[in-house]
């Protein structure tokens, strides 16, 4: 029987420069998805709580006080702690700094980037992680290409136009399951995606969990992403 993680880290320290002017006075996770009245971080906390998470550590950076003030006033579905880097540690160092403040150092944990808006079963991902005895598992998404694609035959005639087709490649979806041992493998400073992940991949201790068919996933990077997320969520009745 699997023991599902009950703790998580949310990385919420990015500048969000591509989301300006929305991020001129707030960090990216505090940007509201139009029509919901709730910032991205609020949706993430609700999702984590629904998946059995009881404790979350949020790594803050840019305009941290705005996020902290919202957390103090909001009715939250789980216990939340915030940490703020006093100096830049890089993605890996920041993740370690936050993970060291999780309540159960000997238990597995989830992590997510603070700009991801998604819904799928974290418990199923955790079971996938455990079955492969992985040290780290990445959720993998197949995003839609933002341009129209053109299909041709062998002779070079155009046979079809396809609007925003799914990418042929899987990408890191920004949601993770980590074993308790993963924390000590993170750098104190630097980028774990250039150090820790490649090392684990060579050792066959890094797993990739493709998001289930029909699972909603979007990274909120631009104003267009906000608009499309609102439209998609409205069409799903979310």
Automatic annotation (TrEMBL):
**The Nucleotidyl transferase domain, residue ranges:** 8-233
SUPFAM superfamilies reported for this sequence: Nucleotide-diphospho-sugar transferases
Which domain of life does the protein's organism represent? Bacteria
Report the leader peptide range.
none
Against CDD domains, the record matches this protein to: NTP_transferase (cd04181)
UniProt name for this protein: NDP-sugar synthase
């Amino acid at each position: 029987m699997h023991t599902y993680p009950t703790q998580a880290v949310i990385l919420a320290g990015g500048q969000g420069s591509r989301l300006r002017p929305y991020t001129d006075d707030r960090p990216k996770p505090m940007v509201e998805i139009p029509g919901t009245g709730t910032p991205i971080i609020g949706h993430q906390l609700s999702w984590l709580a629904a998946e059995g998470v009881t404790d979350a550590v949020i790594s803050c950076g840019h305009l941290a006080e705005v996020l902290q003030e919202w957390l103090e006033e909001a009715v939250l579905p789980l216990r939340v702690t915030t940490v703020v880097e006093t100096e830049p540690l890089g993605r890996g160092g920041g993740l370690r700094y936050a993970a060291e403040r999780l309540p159960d150092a000997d238990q597995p944990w989830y992590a997510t980037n603070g700009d991801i808006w998604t819904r799928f079963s974290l418990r199923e991902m955790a079971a996938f992680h455990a079955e492969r005895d992985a040290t780290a598992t990445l959720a993998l998404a197949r995003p839609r290409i933002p341009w129209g694609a053109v299909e041709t035959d062998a002779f070079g005639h155009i046979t079809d136009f396809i609007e925003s087709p799914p990418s042929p490649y899987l990408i890191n979806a920004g949601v993770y399951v980590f074993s308790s041992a993963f924390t000590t493998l993170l750098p104190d400073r630097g980028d774990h995606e250039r150090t820790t992940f490649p090392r684990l991949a060579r050792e066959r201790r890094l797993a990739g969990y493709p998001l289930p068919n029909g699972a909603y996933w979007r990274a909120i990077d631009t104003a267009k992403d906000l608009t499309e997320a609102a439209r998609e969520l409205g069409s799903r009745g979310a």
